[in-house]
Amino acid sequence: QVQLVESGGDSVQAGGSLRLSCAASGYTYSGYCMGWFRQAPGKEREGVAVIDRDDRIRYAESVKGRFTISKDSAKDMLYLQMNSLKPEDTGMYYCAADLGDCAVALTLRQANYWGPGTQVTVSS
Asked: What pLDDT score does 12 carry?
């Protein structure tokens, strides 16, 4: 059974940084598109960043230059380094795996596996 578990969410002030981690069990990261998504209260889930098996990366425009996605395939870990956080970054952050075509994954927001989420709150 595949399980994804996120960690690292917290409450920070604007301008701060956080590093989210996603650990997988029963699943290997190699060979698949995986990524991070977020959902703010009252809003739809949106794609944040994805990375494919060749380490090609795509970011949402709103996080470019501030967030960095990375993975450690040997440890089946996915990370999201978030710098210069803004209040509009507040939301539940979800790790997702097996996203299909990474070229459209941020937009389609469909995955075979999702983690339960970790809360990020950024105050002004």
From this structure: 98
